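Figure S7 source data.
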Amino acid sequence: MLDFSHGGNVYLFAEKLGCKPEDLIDLSSNISPFIDKFILKETQNYFKFFQFLPSSHGYLLKKEVARQYDISSDQVVLGVGTSELIKNICFLYKNRKCLIFPPTYIDYEKYATIYSLDINFYYLKEEDEFELHWEKIDFSKYELVFICNPNNPTGKVIRKDELIKVVSLYPDTLFVVDESYLPFLINEDEMTLLGTEYNNLLVLRSFSKIYGMAGIRVGFAYSKNAGLIKNIERYNLEWGISSISEQIGMKLLSIDTKKIAKQIDEIKRKFFERLMQLDGIKVYPSDTNFLLIKLLEKDSDYVINELLKEKILVRNCKNIRGLDDTFIRISVKEEEKMDYFIKVFERVLNG
Ligand SMILES: Cc1ncc(COP(=O)(O)O)c(C=O)c1O
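Tokens for the predicted pyridoxal-5'-phosphate complex:
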């Protein structure tokens, strides 16, 4: 049985350590720590919505998403997190040929396996710094291609013009471009494929990451292809997203995410510089809010266990296809947490 476990399992580790989840320093999930305090407070006013069903397939929230990104409501489908959409897409393409670029987000393979897709892997190579060179790929062989942009866990982004080139060259292949971490880029607007009009392009977005609200479980997909959107929605529960999540989602769309992106980017730059000064690791430059690290002298289980003793959680990458037990991934959180992490990490590396 393949291991498709994720980071961010604070409940499990809190139980193991006999502490509260909030006592942990969770650098294992790529969720912004900068939650909008005003909106968090306002959520209390939304409890009254529990007495109503949410709108059918969240059409109130869909309308707001469409307005925000200047697209049409029938080009948007919501999901219980982006996760539900990945699952539905795989269901829609069951038994068909798909392409995945490891190391990447493991749910593409997870749901492709569950729905018996014919999975093909094109590995990003360590010696190429995990950059994607796809000039030699004949995409016409695949009906479905997952592209994580920026890629989790490598943090690398692919330019919009490069993406558009392949999408336009292979009209019979559906390209799913997962932009869950794109809002962490300062130049997000120049990079996004939201609003780009190709029938064979589907863009995924998550409310979990940039808004720091993974618990509300909201994500959405955009495609010019309203037929495809409708098809994906057919497999959603009509009221899968709760009425309170729908209300919070509408409010979150008003947040200026550029401010959050800038704040995290500044912390990341300083953190990266400090990591570069440590012996025994290689750090991969990242375009987004997490960093992939190769351990040159220790293995990931050892490092993770030592960090856990100080209540720090990082992502063990040993179950990510294309990586092994020499890789960990660190998410960028508040500056003081990163300072504390560096101190402990240096001790662990020298231990
Ligand atoms: C690349 C990527 N896509 C999608 C998801 C799923 O996010 P959610 O279901 O919370 O929207 C994750 C979560 O880690 C992710 O890393």
